[in-house]
């Protein structure tokens, strides 16, 4: 085999391989086997593949012509587990989504249109459409610019992302258990899905300050066991079934904001601790901050302009939350950046 055409792209605070859906086998088992061999999984170091030995750098975006009329491109996100032979389509990824607009233009799936090209992205994982605004002066994707996002050094061209109708993306309802707060394994939890299934728990309820480093949290075997026990228990409550081999729900420890934001977070995705926070995870956390009775409501600072700074280990992610007259969340948006790192052909392990 001569390898497969691919772009290796940073999307937000993640990195992944962007490829044509049509270049991969249609059979899911064959496709997943190929992706594991491209990334070098299962292996904690992914030494014989292009994966970055971190769940945030072991991601794949498969792109194709849109299968619905109101979108420009189809996007299937796949999480390639690092140390297990698992590939999961059971979640979306808003960081990798940031690279989809640029990649779709580079791959010839979408034509640049003026200085800013609006790309409507059909997210196959959840069935919803996201709108990305990509800088394309002179018909060419521009990567450099003045926008900064926490968790990525330097600046780059801004990519605005807007979402609507993402409530219940994987769980069927914003609050899949029907309650704004459940007690699971003795811990108060808010089970929510506004683009990403997330379990919010107060850090203090688990004996934590909430500002521990990801390394400290990952080293705490007792905590990890407790968090995993809660995760396995809430799977059926969130309509996700047995989540033992799934990358959702994400587990977010929350505490009062420490740097002027809305709330502070540390998230397990679901076993490794995120160095920042996922995009849709941040949208789900911000949405929980608006719900009276949630574990976040009392500690959250709700900004009048709807721009929620969700604090995380490397700064904060800003999420715009739109609400209707009743206060119900109707849409969300965020600003990300992306950068093409390499383009060429990628070769799987035999
Ligand atoms: O929540 C990591 C990431 C993500 C997902 C993860 C994401 C999102 O930071 O939309 O972006 O939660 O596994 O790329």
UniProtKB/TrEMBL annotation:
One of its GO terms (molecular function) is isomerase activity. InterPro entries: OMA_tautomer-like, PrpF-like. It is an enzyme of class 5 (isomerase). It comes from the Bacteria. Its EC number is 5.3.2.8. Keywords: Isomerase. Belongs to the PrpF family. Pfam families: PrpF. It comes from Donghicola mangrovi. This is 4-oxalomesaconate tautomerase. NCBIfam families: OMA_tautomer. SUPFAM superfamilies: Diaminopimelate epimerase-like. Gene3D superfamilies: Diaminopimelate Epimerase, Chain A, domain 1.
